[in-house]
Specification:
The complex is a heterodimer of chains A (136) and B (178). With 136 residues, chain A is mostly helical. Chain A folds into 2 domains: 64 residues, no CATH class; 40 residues. Chain A is built from 5 helices and no strands. The longest helix of chain A is centred in the N-terminal third of the chain and has 44 residues. By secondary structure, chain B is mostly helical. Chain B has 8 helices and no strands. In chain B, helix 1 packs across helix 4. Classes of the chains: A mainly alpha (136), B mainly alpha (178).
């Protein structure tokens, strides 16, 4: 594929909902070999992690009784929450709406979820608000 | 929590269809997935484990998370059900879009949707991050937890790759929480 096609593919997969990596793989496969190409690329990107995960879960299952695994997870938790804060900021930035409108949506959503509003409904409503007010 | 029956698989499939339709990228799906999975099909500790390992291991993050959650809920068949739910929405969408690419790119509404959705997803992730923060057995924040969090924040700020940071935090946990 050409470079401009590639850039287009990256742009598309970051806009569409769902996993970036997968969509990128499929798009490249599609550009190279049509629908069969897309499916082959999909298979190629699913297979390696599947095998690795199956292996790891098996091992983990054996190790669960060892106390150090629990401690490892306990150490993992704070690091993951910090990582998620960074991710949240990146997603906010990448969304492209960092003006007062974006902040308002973010803060109102947080308040709504704090009050136990169902998360997916909040996300969908935020998206609809985006369609109405943020479509250029 | 291992019941290998049909209803569990259906639930997994539906869960991942939902989560993957509503998140623009792998890392973004963690927040929604937490809300959907923790308490219903897996414990909080198991979830932390899943997020940690999907970050450290190579390959697409969303997929690995799906597989871990699937395994916790329904064993090996659960893995494949969750995988199907995670793969289907992007696949269908990608092929549909590839077919009508030119027209679609000029559509602004999809961009508006993502723009509006992003702050809400970021907010969701922050809330989940807060809940994860006191995940330990004791459910309270002590000095060791804060220490690991502060250290991770500094490391991530200096753009040290996240798998390394998580690995380090885990190893630190092994020593600190002994």
């Amino acid at each position: 594929m050409t470079e401009s096609q590639f850039i287009q593919a990256v742009g598309l997969s970051s806009v569409l909902p769902g996993s970036d990596a997968l969509q990128l793989a499929m798009y490249i496969g599609y550009a190279a070999g049509g629908i069969p190409g897309g499916l082959v690329a999909l298979l190629g990107s699913i297979l390696p992690p599947t095998l690795i995960i199956l292996g790891v879960t098996m091992i983990l299952h054996r190790l669960r009784r060892e106390s150090w695994v629990g401690n490892f997870v306990e150490g993992l938790a704070p690091a993951i929450s910090v990582l998620m804060l960074f991710t949240a900021w990146k997603i906010f930035e990448k969304g492209g709406e960092t003006s007062w409108m974006g902040w308002t949506i973010g803060i109102v959503s947080m308040a709504a979820m704090w009050l136990k509003a169902p998360e997916r409904i909040v996300v969908i409503i935020a998206g609809i608000i985006g369609i109405i007010f943020l479509s250029s | 929590m291992k019941q290998s029956n049909f209803s569990v698989w259906l639930r997994l499939l539906w869960m991942f269809l939902k989560v993957n339709l509503l998140s623009p990228s792998g890392p973004a799906s963690v927040g929604l997935l937490y809300k959907e999975a923790v308490g219903s099909v897996m414990s909080e500790e198991r979830f932390v484990e899943a997020v940690g390992f999907s970050n450290v291991l190579p390959g697409s993050e969303a997929l690995k998370l799906a597989m871990f959650v699937g395994y916790a809920a329904g064993g090996v068949p659960g893995v494949f059900t969750a995988l199907l739910g995670a793969v289907l929405p992007p696949t269908v969408m990608m092929f549909a879009v590839a077919a009508i690419l030119q027209q679609f790119q000029q559509e602004d509404w999809l961009q508006g949707f993502v723009k509006g959705m992003s702050p809400a997803i970021a907010a969701l992730i922050i809330m989940v991050a807060w809940e994860l923060f006191h995940v330990g057995q004791t459910k309270k924040i002590d000095r060791r937890t804060l220490f690991i969090a502060a250290l991770s924040a500094v490391a991530l700020w200096f753009e040290i790759p996240s798998p390394l940071v998580l690995l380090g935090a885990g190893v630190l946990g092994v020593f600190l929480f002994r």
